[in-house]
Design goal:
Blueprint (H helix, E strand, L loop, with lengths): L12 H9 L4 H9 L5 H7 L5 H13 L3 E6 L5 E6 L1 H33 L1
Antiparallel strand pairs: 1-2
Organism: Chitinophaga solisilvae
InterPro entries: HTH_HxlR (IPR002577), WH-like_DNA-bd_sf (IPR036388), WH_DNA-bd_sf (IPR036390)
GO molecular function: DNA binding
């Protein structure tokens, strides 16, 4: 298991929020679950360009943080589904605001990204 050399500073709300939604795929995974994609195989199909190991790691981290829960049904074959905890549900309006900001500012960010890559 990975052990951090530098301790995390989680004494401000913003650092806690970034820990939860930061990273390349967590917000996208949470959006998938919000849209009703709850099974690991369906998540993998939706996130086809992401290594399945990475998706599993991000799901586990979101579960460990108390944002989502994993439910294993006693069926053959076993069925697994992810859903939001109350803490995760409380994060959905934040995702809405982030998505709106991204939509509203997409052109400017893309323009600046292209300018950086040209230099």
């Amino acid at each position: 298991m990975y052990e951090r050399k530098i301790p995390e500073m989680l004494d401000c709300g913003l650092s806690v929020a970034v820990k939860v939604v930061g990273g390349k795929w967590k917000a996208w995974i949470m959006d998938c679950i919000r849209r009703g994609i709850k099974r690991p195989s369906a998540l993998q199909r939706e996130l086809a360009e992401v290594n399945p190991r990475i998706v599993s790691m991000q799901l586990k981290e979101l579960e460990d943080l108390g944002i989502i829960r994993k439910e294993i049904y006693a069926e053959i074959p076993a069925r697994v589904e992810y859903s939001f905890t109350p803490t995760g549900e409380s994060l959905l309006p934040v995702l809405d605001v982030l998505e709106k900001w991204g939509t509203d500012n997409r052109e400017e960010v893309l323009k600046n990204t292209l300018e950086l890559s040209e230099n």
